[in-house]
Amino acid sequence: MVGFKLGAGKVIIVTSIMKKQFLILLFSFLLLTKYSFGENLTKDNLLKMSPSQIIILANNGDALAQLWLGDAIYNGSIPNWRNFSGCEWYYKSAKQNNAEAALKLYKYYLNFRVDSKDCPKIIGIEKPNLDKNYWLLKAARLNNPEAQLILFDDEISSEDNDRKKIALRWLNRAAKNNYPPALNQLAHLHKGGAHVKKDVGKAIELYTKASNLDSKNETPDRILAEIYSNEFYLNGTTNAKFQFQQGKKNKAKYEADLRFYESYNYTNYFDIKKAVSSAEKCIQKAFEFSCYMKIINYYSEKKFNNIDYEEALMWLNEAEEVLKKSDFYSTILTTKGWAYLQWDNLKVNKTKAREYFQKAISSHKKSRFPSKERIKLYEKWISYTY
């Protein structure tokens, strides 16, 4: 038990249970009082609070607490969430120039049919602004990079050149904010020369930055691998030449194909070691078929001047194990079949090759998009093993 003096010598006796309750209330009071004197509340602070404490802060006008409450209501993650209006709290936070809240209010208006009934408590204070584009623009002006990228996407297809220029300004602002999706988008424009001057070196710089900032999205690593290996150009021109020599294309079509692939010629940036490194990073982020096939090809196809069949086999074996549920698993199996026919580190074994081609047919039939043409091709390859 513990006693507290209250003025004129009076003492109140409190049990240990009441003491704990008192301390919790005292802590909550001090915590809420602390932030009522102008100190900035952070998301880390919110993580240490109970929902009831955050609701108090939101009611007292803290913009970050209001944003949190809007999210909690939207996700249904607080008790009695149906008694609250997510729109109300996003709105109140956005009114206080919280950029994230402004963007979420835009998405709220975008995804739901919204009228004055959706923000009942706001109506008592003011007529709510239900213009979703107003809140999107506000979020962008408050330097939210996602909002800036959305404005770019909305405006870049316009036939009005002035609107396109504005769209590009928003994209550049989002990229300067180190927003990976914006960096990827700007890199893509520079790589192809769409809306901006073609600059492959600048594209590489932007893709590299996006890769380093985003530990989950493999897109920039996959594209870097394609640039450094020059695979699209090499594959395209090699195939066009083969078809021309086989009489499947006339000279005019062959020359037209060469002109087309020339726009994808990254010979000046060819660096197979960087291509391999990017493909490895691609696999680290996402165990994707395309990532595995790149690194397997870089080590096994002579056009890349990087033959190492042992390394290629290591990656192929891993892909065979990891991608069993992939729709592209049949391609991994056929690659293994051809390895038994062509790779120097594997003795020619037609029986093994046939086995993998047959497995590929079975796998392809079970895929979401089976192709009769693909099955006929695999059957043709099987005929080479007899």
H/I helix tally: 21
Helix-strand topology string: EEHHHHHHHHHHHHHHHHHHHHH
**Helix/strand/pairing category:** mainly alpha
Mean pLDDT: 87
Strand order of the largest sheet: 1-2
Strands, count: 2
What is the overall silhouette?
elongated
Helix content: 55-70%
Can you put this structure into words, describing what you see?
- Residues 1-14 and 22-38 have low confidence and may be disordered.
- This protein has helices at residues 16-35, 43-47, 51-59, 63-75, 86-95, 99-111, 120-123, 132-141, 145-155, 161-176, 180-192, 200-213, 219-229, 231-245, 251-262, 272-285, 289-300, 309-322, 329-342, 350-366, 372-383, and strands at residues 2-6, 10-14.
- Helices cover 67% and strands 3% of the residues.
- 32% of the residues are buried.
- Among the domains are: 43-141, no CATH class; 324-386.
- The chain is elongated, with a radius of gyration of 31 Å.
- By secondary structure, it is an all-alpha fold.
- The protein has 21 helices and two strands.
Brief overview:
The protein is mainly α.
Short key terms for the protein model shown above:
mainly alpha, single chain, 386 residues, two-stranded antiparallel sheet, elongated, 21 helices
Layout of SSEs?
Elements: E1 2-6, E2 10-14, H1 16-35, H2 43-47, H3 51-59, H4 63-75, H5 86-95, H6 99-111, H7 120-123, H8 132-141, H9 145-155, H10 161-176, H11 180-192, H12 200-213, H13 219-229, H14 231-245, H15 251-262, H16 272-285, H17 289-300, H18 309-322, H19 329-342, H20 350-366, H21 372-383
Helix pairs in contact: 3-4, 4-5, 5-6, 6-8, 8-9, 9-10, 10-11, 11-12, 12-13, 13-16, 13-17, 14-15, 16-17, 17-18, 18-19, 19-20, 20-21
